[in-house]
Amino acid sequence: MKSGLVKSPKLALVIPCYNEEEIIVETIEKTNIFLKELIDTNKVSEDSFIKFVDDGSVDSTWEIISSNATKYDLTTAIKLSKNEGHQNALIAGMESVADRCDCIVTLDADLQQDMNAIYEMLERYQEGYEVVLGIRTDRSSDTLFKKMTALGYYKIMQLMGVDIDTNHADYRLLSNRALKFILQLKERNIFLRGAVKLIGLKSTKVYFKTRDRVAGESKYPLSKMLSFAWNGITSFSVFPLKMITVVGFIIFVLSIAATLHSLYIVIFTDEAVPGWASTVLPIYFIGGIQLLSIGIIGEYLGKVYIESKSRPRYFIEEELK
Fold first, then answer.
1. Does the keyword Transferase feature in the UniProt annotation (predicted)?
2. Residue 193 near residue 169, CB atoms below 8 Å
3. I need a labelling partner for 110 at 20 to 30 A (CA). Which of 52, 57, 122, 225 fits?
4. How many whole angstroms separate alpha carbon 39 and alpha carbon 35?
5. Is the dihedral of CA 236, 240, 241, 242 positive or negative?
6. In sequence order, what are the residues at sequence separation of 6 or more whose Cβ sits closer than 8 angstroms to the Cβ of residue 97?
7. Domain 11-223+312-320 belongs to what architecture?
8. Helix (H, G, I), strand (E, B) or coil at 187
């Protein structure tokens, strides 16, 4: 893509949602109003549209989307047959629009991400950037616990060797070419925040402030955040496997040192007293390390097993065009 060739690109807004009945009406209304503003100002073409992805909600989210689709003509949607997780819901939306747009913007349904940043994303796209990442500038609306866990999340990911931008979630613009590059990555346990760094196309960042959630609750409690982080680490890093080798070497060195010390005590002193602690504690310690190592290896083998079956990431139960 060369800068200036596309004056008014056809844009698709891809919005995954799960159990968002308390806010989805407002989300549909505000995203439609915003997209019409983009169309009226010739930032995007008049055939741009919104794609909602219901990730198997068990509340009335899908019924609300369906009933509002006729009222808001820019709205399209798909419903997954069951909850497949945020990343697979994004992939479902991305695949459904891949042949129908020049670029896409993915954003959350909770309206916390400032949609005005899309103006700058489109400007960067017109300049020739094919990946534009939305970076959160502050966490003033977060609790102290949320701030600390979020900071720890990014630091741990980076420490483990995962190439990821701090405070970037899944708010980004992708050109059609970047979109199709990502869709060539067929792993079921995909981690999109890392995937966008793999494709190698020209990228940049825009910055935005978040807003308080208008209604409903976050669908990413600490347990899901930890699971998401672990998925990202095991998808893009073998650092935990390398750590097993390092820890094993350290224990080996310590065991040699302990053996030499024991021999010294037995040969050169009269202080050698057989004890329970010196026998049992090392067994517990080494046993714990072995179980931890087996568990880490098992996580990687489990992912290999899941990927080897090549099962579909999702099933579309219903679609509104």
1. yes
2. yes
3. 122
4. 6
5. positive
6. 12, 14, 51, 104
7. Alpha-Beta Complex (3.90)
8. coil
Please name the residue that has the structure tokens 């504690």: 281
- The secondary structure element, H or E, covering residue 224 is helix 222-236
Long-range contact pairs involving 304-313 (C-beta distance under 8 Å, separation at least 24)? 306/188, 306/189, 307/187, 307/188, 307/189, 310/186, 311/188, 313/84, 313/88, 313/91, 313/92, 313/188, 313/190
Going residue by residue through the chain, which has 321 residues, state the pLDDT in tens, using 9 for 90 and above.
Answer: 444 445 799 999 999 999 999 999 999 999 999 999 999 999 999 999 999 999 999 999 999 999 998 899 999 999 999 999 899 999 999 999 999 999 999 999 998 899 999 999 999 999 999 999 999 987 666 667 667 777 777 777 777 777 778 888 899 999 999 999 999 998 888 889 888 988 989 999 999 988 776 665 665 566 666 676 667 676 767 677 777 777 777 776 777 777 677 667 767 776 656 664 567 567 767 777 787 788 788 878 877 877 787 888 899 999 998
Tell me, what amino acid is at 200? G
Q: How many CA atoms, within 13 angstroms, populate the side-chain half-sphere of residue 57?
A: 23
